[in-house]
Amino acid sequence: MGCGDGALTKTIIACGCNVLGVDGSPAFIDVARQQGVPADAMDGQALTFDSEFDAVFSNAALHWMKDIDAVIAGVHRSLKPCGRFVAEMGGHGNVAAIVNALSDGLRKRGIDCNMPGIDGYALARAIRDLEEGGVSRTHLIAMTAKGTRGTRQKCIDAGMDDYVTKSIGDAQMKEILMKWLNVEAVAAAHLPHIPQTMIDTSLPVDLSLLNECVGDDDEARAMAIDLFIEGAHECMVALSIAKNVREELAWKQAAHKFKGAAANFGADHLRQCCQNAEHNALAGPLEKNIMFEKIDQALVAVKRYLDK
Q1: C-alpha–C-alpha distance, residues 158 and 122, integer Å
Q2: Gap between the Cα atoms of 20 and 87, Å rounded
Q3: Positive or negative torsion for Cα 57, 242, 95, 42
Q4: Is 266 in contact with 207 (CB distance < 8 Å)?
Q5: How would you label 205-237 residue by residue, b for 16+ Cβ within 10 Å and e otherwise?
Q6: Per DSSP, what are the bridge partners of residue 86?
Q7: Coil, strand or helix: which one is 190?
Q8: For the chain, where are the alpha helices, taking DSSP H only?
Q9: Which of the listed residues 32, 45, 133, 241 has the most CB atoms within 10 Å of its CB?
C-alpha cells in the first residue's frame, strides 16, 4: 500500500511473494508497471478489496494518509482471517532535524503561492501547524507578481506575517527584512544591486546579473554555475519522466521550475522554451518530444557558452 514507483515492491517479489502494489498516484503506477510490477491506482483510504490477501505491507506512506480510520478499516477488510499488517511510517518528531532545516531554508527563500500543483497558502498553514508541535516560529513573507484586491488578507489569513508585491527594490527589501529579522544583522548585511537592464537575448546566457552579484569572487561564480547546471539536469529528468508517463501536471511543474531557474540565470532562450512547454502541458506525445528537444538544445547551447 503506497507502492510508489514499485522499486521496493520488486524486492518483495524477488523474495518469492505474489504481490499487488497500490498507490494513489496514476503516474507512479505507470512507472511501476513499466518495471513489470503488478499495480493498480487506488487511494489507501478507500481500498476496495475483500478478504483477498495474506498480508498488507506499507513503507513510508501512511503518514500521508489523513483518514487513518478509513485506512485501518480498508486494510482489515482486505485481509484474510489471521492475516497480518506490517507498516513503517513517519512518527512524531522522527524528522525534527529535517523540519527545522526546512524552516530555516524557508526563512531565506520566497514561496511562490501560485506554482502549478503547489499552493503556497496551504504551505503557510502547514508550517504554522508544525509550529504548534514545538517547532520554532518561522517568519513568512508573501511576495506576489501583482497585488489584487484581497490578496494581502488572503496571505495574512493563511498565516503569513507580511506581504509585498514584485518588483521590490533594495530599499523596500531591506525595510521588510529589518522589520521581521534581526535588525542589527540585516543593517550590516550587503544587499546586492539587481541591475534593471534588459537581458542580452542574442547570447545563450547573459551573465551580467551573476557577475553583478558575485563580483570578482570566482569561487562563488563557479558554485552558482554548478548549482544551475545540476538543477537543470534534475529538471530535464523530471520532464523526461513526465513526458514518458504522460503526466501533464508533473510536466507543467518541471517546466515552470526550469523556466524560473533559466530566467534568474539570464538564459532567455532557454526560459522561452520552458515557458512554451509549461503553457502547452496538455499537448500530445509528439509535440512534447519536440518541446523537450528544443529545451535540451537550448541547455546544450548554454553549457557550451559557459565552457568558453
Answers
A1: 7
A2: 16
A3: negative
A4: yes
A5: bbbebbeeebeeeeeebeebbeebeeebeebbe
A6: 57
A7: coil
A8: 7-14, 26-34, 68-78, 96-108, 120-132, 151-157, 170-180, 183-188, 208-214, 218-245, 248-265, 268-279, 285-307
A9: 32
pLDDT of 113 > 60? The answer is no
Q: Of 48, 46, 50, 60, whose CA–CA distance to 2 is shortest?
A: 60
Please determine, for residue 109, whether its predicted confidence score (pLDDT) is greater than 80: no
DSSP category for residue 105: H
Question: Does residue 142 sit in helix, strand or coil?
Answer: strand
Give the count of beta carbons closer than 10 Å to the beta carbon of residue 181.
14
Asked if 45 and 70 count as a contact pair (C-beta separation under 8 A), the reply is yes
pLDDT at 231 over 70: yes
Crossing angle between the packed helical segments 96-108 and 120-132, to the nearest 10 degrees: 130
Alpha carbon of 62 to those of 23, 43, 47, 91: distances in Å? 11, 11, 13, 10
**Model confidence, pTM:** 0.41
Tell me the DSSP string of 58-81. Answer: EES-GGG-S-HHHHHHHHHHHEEE
Of the candidates 57, 30, 70, 62, the one whose C-alpha atom is nearest the C-alpha of residue 250 is 30
Residue 60's pLDDT band, with cuts at 50, 70 and 90, is confident
The pLDDT, as a whole number, for residue 216 is 77
Query: What is the H or E stretch that residue 84 is in?
Result: strand 79-88
The residue with cell 520532464 is: 239
